[in-house]
Amino acid sequence: MIHRGYIWNMSELTLLIVEDDDDIADILISYAQRDNMQTHRAVNGLEAINQLHNHDIDLVLLDVKLPEKDGWAVLSHIRQFSQVPVIMLTALDQDIDKIMALRMGADDYIVKPFNPNEVMARVQAVLRRSIVTTTPTAVPEKSYGNLKIDETQHLVTIQTADAIHTLNLTLTEYHFLLLLIQAPNKVFTRSEILDRCLPDSDALERTVDSHMSKLRKKLTTLPATVAINSVRGVGYRLEKL
Hints:
alpha/beta; Rossmann fold; 12 strands
């Protein structure tokens, strides 16, 4: 498992490749090992869940069409207990499928047939976004209202007089919120959010709306004194209630 706050090397990383097609799985394993990554493989959804519970996994390559449990069910289960980065692999090349994957908490989406080199480039891009590196002058905590982000622990909390509530965020939601809290009340455009938070992704601007919608709902379920507000036709900003 990646240790947050430290620069990593590829040999420290472990991928879980969830793919029932032996040929595709063998190619992905070969390319991952070429980059000195450790690998585990699951051939169905149930085995994938078991592997995640029993091994330290840094990223999941998850096929959609799987026996036992499909990729959507596996992704939903993962997000109930883990924020491990997930890249979906699928033969479905429809915008609705991409949006569904992102809404359910996937960090990226790759359509088959794919170039294995591109897959590994996406893996490294998502891993870079998932790791919070600090410098001696960095401020490890950021707060606004009763919202606090601890970058050393990758932890987001809402603090009240009698309790501390933890926000269970996907990796992308975390980075969006971390960007907004850097400059409260500033309006970040959709393109700026993509450039700052998903620089190596080919995500569309409406992807921002999908992630922000889920993030806003999560904030409203807790006694937060801040909210993410949209500015029509422009973007989003973090404000106090």
